[in-house]
């Protein structure tokens, strides 16, 4: 069980996350939707410790962490439990696809280069990028870059993977190749996954539960059917109607 309690994040006087509390079962796939500025990406960044909240607790593996006041050793331990896939890929331009995947294994997990290379090749193969292992990012399409980024996240073998708008920087014709990889991961691995996306049909079909954020608060957190078909909230119905028109 993963438990978040009273997570609050402000930028200046602006409240981005307003006292969020929720629980997620291990292995669940959680879709996160809502308008731009509702706090979706900030939630992921707080969970991954890229942003420090003013308040909030995270319980994972029966151990409770104060996210607003972490010791460095606890920060490192938590980060080893999570990987994040960013909308802008965040690859090292001067490293090959293979080196981008081995970097974290060697530096963070202190793995020997040979073992790291073997593991990287394994996960590049899973996302269909083994043949591009020696390519640099400049010679890869957006979809290929994102698949390398996904392989990098998988190779760390975390408990939780956070996907922050993984297709938003892609040309429309490349979106499906990345969504296909994420779907395959969900079917072949038991990671807990948090997925922020504007691809509503994908969120509806892949998620065990869907969280709708509005003005930094959880308006509804339920199974996809309740969110997409039977939501009792006018705000959610209006949002989904607008997304259908776009």
UniProtKB/TrEMBL annotation:
InterPro entries: AAA+_ATPase, ABC_ATPase_HisP-typ, ABC_transporter-like_ATP-bd, ABC_transporter-like_CS, MetN_ABC_transporter-like, P-loop_NTPase
Membrane disposition: Peripheral membrane protein
Residues annotated as domain ABC transporter: 2-240
Gene3D superfamilies per the UniProt record, alphabetical: P-loop containing nucleotide triphosphate hydrolases
SUPFAM superfamilies: P-loop containing nucleoside triphosphate hydrolases (SSF52540)
Subcellular location: Cell membrane
MF (Gene Ontology): ABC-type amino acid transporter activity; ATP binding; ATP hydrolysis activity
The keyword Membrane is annotated on this UniProt entry: yes
Record keywords: ATP-binding, Cell membrane, Membrane, Nucleotide-binding, Transport
One Pfam family hit: ABC_tran
GO cellular component: plasma membrane
Name of the featured protein: ABC transporter domain-containing protein
Originating organism: Falseniella ignava CCUG 37419
